[in-house]
Amino acid sequence: MKHQKVVIIGSGPAGYTAALYSARANLAPLLYEGFFSGPAGGQLMTTTEVENYPGFIHGITGPALMDAFRKQCERFGTTLLREDVDSVDLSVRPFVVHGKKTESTCDALIIATGATAKRLDIPGADEEGFWQKGVTACAVCDGAMPIFRNKELYVIGGGDSAVEEAIFLTKYGSKVYIVHRRDELRASKIMAKRALSHPKVEILWDSAITRIEGDKVVRSINLLNLKTNQEIKRDAAGVFFAIGHQPNTDFLKGQLKTNTQGYILVKPGTSYTSVEGVFAAGDVQDPVYRQAITAAGSGCMSAIDAERWLSELEIG
Q: Is the pTM above the cut of 0.85?
């Protein structure tokens, strides 16, 4: 069992940035990138064009951006391990990290495992269909893409997130439909009022999308009325899932404090969790913004917090 000053669990903007800053602080971090749990690089590995990350005038693909992150943190001495973490033991010092094949101990642990967007099993919505070809789970990330401009767009959901995504998309689409299975929104009253009063938003009550079709991109959806059982085909350029995210924290087995949604709680303005020496970065502790740039920023914070904490203990 090898001992590390810092172990980082999770790749993506948060994990790789935490590794970069830790490595440049001569902490020689070990980073578990994941394997079966998802591609190294996180959600951006399934994203085609990233046009809102600073510094890339003409945009960049998600995989290319994450490859650059990976190579940069590796250049400064990060040890990268393409392996999932099954569990951790935070009750002992040093902490113990149980990977699929290896085990390690560490003085400081950074959790950057992200959150997974919830999606429905709709024909045409998966990777073999139109995922990231008109089907997405982030309007802020993808809404400005040319394929959505001046087209009819569909948001699946009924909560505040669905309303927020729909209203955001009105900047680009000609019409935005909220598809909801019930006859009233779950959103707060003020958000529901905004949706109902917006001239470019229409709510399709008691409805569900049953199929997504197209050629190279989404062209149409099949819409089922759950009360009448009538199904019709409608033109569509985009389908946006807005039914929530699931933080990737199962491996922690309740050892860190979380909110009711499962996001790791951190001390405001820091990356400190409820266990001293454990830090959290990226979407796993961010139920609000969930952007690559904010994830990278919190990854930087976690590395600096960890380095200062280790220095106070005269470990770093």
A: no
